[in-house]
Amino acid sequence: MINNKIGSSNMNFLISIVVITYNHEKYIRKCLDSILMQDVDFSFEIIVGDDCSTDKTAQIITEYQDKYPDIIKPNLRSINVGATKNQYDCFLRCTGNYIAILDGDDFWTDKQKLKIQIDFLKNNESFIACTQRYSVVDENDNVTQEVFFGPGRPESGEYTLNDFQKYIYYGHPGTLVFKNIFLEPKHDYSIIYKADRWICDITLGLILTCLGRIYVSDDNMTSYRRFQKKGGTNFCSSIRGKNSTIERIIFLKKLEDYCKHE
Fold this sequence. Notes:
Strand content: 15-25%
Number of strands: 10
Structural class: alpha/beta
Number of helices: 9
Order of helices and strands: EHEHEHEEHEEEHEHHEHH
Distance between the termini: 41 Å
Radius of gyration: 17 Å
């Protein structure tokens, strides 16, 4: 539910939720509704970056902005800039002390998600971020994995740089909540989009791991939409196949060079 503290355009937000989207007219309502249903006693804003969708996604976002003008903050692009530039730009627009991420075709499944993660970070100040488990669904919301157990799945507890070096992920971006490192940046974080046009989560995960501690919880409160479909614009359908081995090596080399300099 939306707390009555949320509603003033002059207020300070505790958390900013970044939603990046492209041709998600079938899913963006469920995504936004899953954020708006959060049962919290703190303020939040939703930064929505639409990367020049060719369907009705932007129209739906505008509809939500009209309904929740103090919460929904759209950035509707007139040209397509790519997933990582879109997300990085949204990060820079975040005014909250914390940031959460949710792609436009994914959704949260528990109204306590944000509260639980914010409470953890408040009570464990040595941690910069926390993540959770997640389910996998197809294009029609059918659950294909109750809990993801695929490659790259982290162990419960603290996620470390050693895990990253083993190519283990901190968790799905839709489960991530982290301290807003962009309010007073200590480093140049533009590597988030400069390293690759499509891959943002690995770069962000590396930065956060270098800056602080990350905790992996066994709570499962997010659904990740994963499917392959001819002509589809989601990651698995349109982008994943283009990310060849040589491109991945180039990407990882950029991250290595970045760490050496920063």
